Amino acid sequence: MSELFGPIVPLLLIALIMGLVQLVKAIWSTLAGKWLIVMAMVLGLLFGGLYQAAMLEPGTVISFRLVFEFMVYSLLLGLAASGFYDLTKRSKPEG
């Protein structure tokens, strides 16, 4: 995926997460508020970790540094996705 999209992959993942949250919101209209932000965070953690795992070279030795980088990247992606979702939710005019 990195070869196809280059350095914009994290932005695409955030857009994907926001789209999935909107899809779930449209399907299950009873979900709202904090639960959607939590879902955006969880999806960010999941997709961030999966993306980092996909970028590993075969035979890479798992070390503390590598696990820490996975955790930080996933956490940042989750926070960004949930923050952007919350920001778009707040900026919508009511009515």
Describe this structure as you would to a colleague.
By secondary structure, this protein is mainly α. The protein has one domain (2-91). It contains 4 helices and no strands. Helix 2 runs antiparallel to helix 3 (34-54). The longest helix has 28 residues, at 64-91.
Task: Summarize the SSE layout with pairings.
Elements: H1 2-5, H2 9-27, H3 34-54, H4 64-91
Helix pairs in contact: 2-3, 2-4, 3-4
Choose one word for the global shape.
elongated
- Output the helix-strand order: HHHH
* Fraction in helix: over 70%
> Compute the gyration radius: what is it?
15 Å
Number of strands: 0
Count structural domains: 1
Judged by helices, strands and strand pairing, the structural class is mainly alpha
Poorly predicted tracts of residues: none
The profile of the biggest β sheet is: none
N→C terminal distance: 40 Å
Tell me what portion of residues adopts beta-strand conformation: under 5%
Total helical elements: 4
Mean pLDDT rating: 80
Question: Descriptors for this entry?
Answer:
95 residues, 0% strand
In summary, what is this structure?
This protein has 95 residues and is mainly α. It is 76% helix and 0% strand.
